[in-house]
Structures are given as structure tokens and as C-alpha cells.
Design brief:
This protein has about 400 residues and is mainly alpha-helical. It has four domains: about 80 residues, no CATH class; about 70 residues; about 110 residues, no CATH class; about 120 residues, 434 Repressor (Amino-terminal Domain). It is built from 21 helices and six strands. It starts with 10 loop residues before the first helix and ends in a 12-residue tail after the last helix.
Length: about 400
């Protein structure tokens, strides 16, 4: 193994997050830069060969009145320098000020929610954890970030939730799955939000994103989650197997509770009833399936959507032969994955996709992979096919579109 190699415990990925891993790498790089001379001197004094150095995650530091060992002091230095390497003070403050202006922080009444969004943006920008970004804010002249740190530590219920947690609930909680499949909620920007144009818009690339109103009123439009503790071994089917792990590890996972979301659920029902009959979807829903095969039905949907052959291929990442099959109304039935690719690319709802599957003599089976495919239509509705493919690939499933077998 070459000099300077860093080995990171696989448990770091599961117990923490990728931001923590980046911090660990910066930590070890600092050791290599500043402390390897110490190891060389110790090697000479002890006449021993040092081939590796282990940095424990649970290092305990002495009180002020106690004496520090050399190893404790070096760990303290690396721990404090790592986030400063990842988030240099000048660029960090510039980025924070930019986000404060972007979110209009000074004038918003929902400062805690906005600070949380700012911290999440910083975490994504610098590749660190939200907590690390907040701590860095407090160190660089933004003491208000302490309120978010306190809320994170004390809050039993939370709205911001990871995609992994959302899909775990979708896979294991039938009530939550029905709610997502109903189309009343989407997973957007880290929140499970009411599916309404008041709260969800499309950015310049067509990707679903929260509106300014939604950011200002997260409690009104997003579901809240509690916590449940699970064993990693029991979650193999629905959580991505990124790396090896210890079988007895446990983890806190977000838990949906309908009783805690009564007001949001009622609002979503009201909005769904009001917006259900959008002209385009209504036309599709009214299409008759009598005496039609699946490709004929798909081509009628394409015509209602007003999509050209080139645009169809771009959106679905399917070859032109699929468009020609629809155009000619061929009787050979498409696969489930082809239908899901069309459903995602054309932003079709689950009702329309289910009709396509029925006409093709197919259906979603009660398997982890088919639940993931169905979730692409429902939970990730409005996301581009590339997002769905990233989601599928993370779970070890075949992606949709050009890589699929037709």
C-alpha cells in the first residue's frame, strides 16, 4: 500500500454521512502534512517502524487542568483544522452572505427555517454535514446559527428528510406508500411536500423545486417525521448497499405518523380535489382503452402531450424504435421498465401508467425492485429520468432508458 494511503472505516458511511467522510479525509490529510515528522522521530527514538496511524472517532480530551498527550493534541489540531480546510473563511463568508441575500434572511419572519435551508445549501456546496456548516457559521460571525443547532438537537419532529428515509417508509409503511402513490405529495428539495403549484414549481431545467412561498411556509405544506431505530440487517432490501457494514449496527430512521400531520393531510386532500381535473391529465384519463393495445394507447398519450419523436427520445432516453412502435401501434407489448421510462419521461401519473401496464398484460409485483420502479412514478414525480436512474443505481437496480434491455 503506497505512502499516504487513507483507510476509512465503512461504519463512517452508515453511522454518519458523506460530509463526515470528507471531513475525515481532510483530517487525515492534515495529519500527513503536519504530523508525519512526529511519527518519524518516534520511530527513530523507539527503533520501531511505524507503518500506520489510527485515528479513533471517539477521542476524549483532557480538562484544562489535566496534561495532554502528544496524540491528543495532534487529534485536537486535526479535528479543528479539517472543517477550516473544507470551508476557508473568506470564501465561506462570501457564500453565506450570498445565501442570506438569496433567501432574503433579514426580512423573513421564518428565520429558523431559512437558516436551516442556508445550512443545507452550504453543506451541499462544500461537501460537509449540515451540523459542520452551522458550527462554521457560528465561528465566522453568524451566531444566529446556534438557534438551528439547538433546534436540531432538541427537536423530536422534523420536516427535512433524506431520500433513503423516505424510501424506507415507502417500502415498509403501507399507509405512507398509499399517500405517496395517491399523487398528493412529492419528495422535493429534501421535503415531502404537498403536490400543488403553490408549493412546487419547475426550475429552468424543468426539475421540480420548492416555490418561495413553500420555503416561507414549510410547516403548512410539508409532512413531519419522528424517529425510529432500526437494525441495518433488517433494512437490506430497501436501503442502498453502498459498502460493507457490521450486521449489528443500528440507525435512526425517519418515521411517518398520520396523526401528527392531520392539518397538512387535510390541506392536501382539499387541493387535490380542486386541481385533479387539469386539462391535459383529464384528457388522458378520459382516453378509452377499449380495443387498443398498449402501444396504441401510448401514442394517444404522446399526441395529447404534443411531444415530437425527438423530444420523446430525449425525455425517456429510449431509442426511436420505441416511438415507431407506438406510432404504428405494434402488438408486441413493452416491458415494465419501458413503460416506467415513458411514465417518468412524460411525467405521467400512476393511473395512466397502470393502464399501460394492464394493456401490456403486466403489473408491478410486490418486490423491492418493483416498489422502487413504482416510487419513480409516484414519489419522484416531476424529477427527470436521470434522477430516477441515480435512485435505482444506488440500490443496485438496472437503470431506465438507453441502458435497458428492450
Amino acid at each position: 500500500m503506497p505512502r499516504g494511503t487513507i483507510l476509512i472505516d465503512a461504519y463512517t458511511y452508515w453511522q454518519r454521512n458523506s460530509g463526515c467522510v470528507n471531513n475525515t479525509i481532510a483530517h487525515e490529510v492534515y495529519h500527513w502534512h503536519r504530523h508525519r515528522l512526529y511519527a518519524a522521530i518516534k520511530s527513530i527514538l523507539r527503533n520501531e517502524r511505524f507503518i500506520a496511524c489510527r485515528c479513533p472517532a471517539d477521542m476524549v480530551y483532557p480538562n484544562e487542568s489535566e496534561e495532554w498527550t502528544d496524540e491528543q493534541r495532534m487529534e485536537w489540531q486535526a479535528n479543528n483544522l479539517a472543517p477550516r480546510i473544507l470551508m476557508p473563511i473568506e470564501t465561506f463568508k462570501t457564500k453565506v452572505d450570498e445565501l442570506y441575500q438569496q433567501y432574503n434572511y433579514e426580512d423573513t419572519p421564518l428565520k429558523l427555517a431559512v437558516l436551516t435551508c442556508i445550512a443545507d445549501d452550504l453543506a451541499r456546496f462544500y461537501g460537509v454535514s449540515r451540523q459542520s456548516a452551522l458550527i462554521r457559521m457560528t465561528e465566522t460571525g453568524y451566531p444566529e446559527a446556534k438557534s438551528v443547532l439547538q433546534a436540531i438537537n432538541e427537536k423530536e419532529w422534523h420536516s427535512y428528510v433524506s431520500l433513503e428515509d423516505v424510501f424506507y417508509e415507502y417500502s415498509t409503511n403501507g399507509d405512507f406508500r398509499k399517500l405517496i402513490d395517491s399523487g398528493r405529495f412529492k419528495y422535493v428539495d429534501g421535503y415531502v411536500v404537498i403536490n400543488d403549484e403553490k408549493y412546487i414549481a419547475a426550475d429552468e431545467t424543468g426539475k421540480a423545486t420548492l416555490t418561495e412561498y413553500a420555503w416561507d411556509n414549510l410547516d403548512e405544506c410539508t409532512l413531519s417525521f419522528g424517529w425510529q431505530r432500526i437494525r441495518r440487517a433488517s433494512a437490506k432490501e430497501v436501503l442502498p448497499e453502498i459498502i460493507f457494514h457490521r450486521e449489528n449496527d443500528e440507525q435512526d430512521i425517519s418515521k411517518y405518523d398520520a396523526d401528527h400531520n392531520t392539518a397538512v393531510l387535510q390541506l392536501s386532500e382539499d387541493l387535490q380535489r380542486r386541481n385533479k381535473n387539469f386539462e391535459e391529465n383529464e384528457k388522458i384519463h378520459l382516453l378509452s382503452t377499449a380495443n387498443k393495445n398498449c402501444w396504441e394507447y401510448i401514442f394517444e398519450v404522446i399526441n395529447i402531450k404534443g411531444i415530437s419523436k425527438a423530444h420523446f427520445c430525449t425525455l425517456t432516453e429510449l431509442g426511436e424504435e420505441n416511438y415507431r412502435k407506438a406510432e404504428k401501434g405494434l402488438k408486441n407489448d413493452p416491458t415494465v421498465r419501458t413503460i416506467v421510462a415513458i411514465g417518468v419521461g412524460l411525467s405521467l401519473d400512476i393511473e395512466t401508467v397502470d393502464k399501460m401496464l394492464y394493456l401490456a398484460g403486466r403489473n408491478f409485483k410486490d418486490t423491492p425492485e418493483d416498489r422502487a420502479l413504482r416510487f419513480c412514478i409516484t414519489g419522484l414525480s416531476g424529477h427527470p429520468l436521470s434522477d430516477c436512474n441515480d435512485f435505482l443505481a444506488a440500490r443496485g437496480y438496472e437503470t431506465l432508458g438507453t441502458k435497458q434491455r428492450l
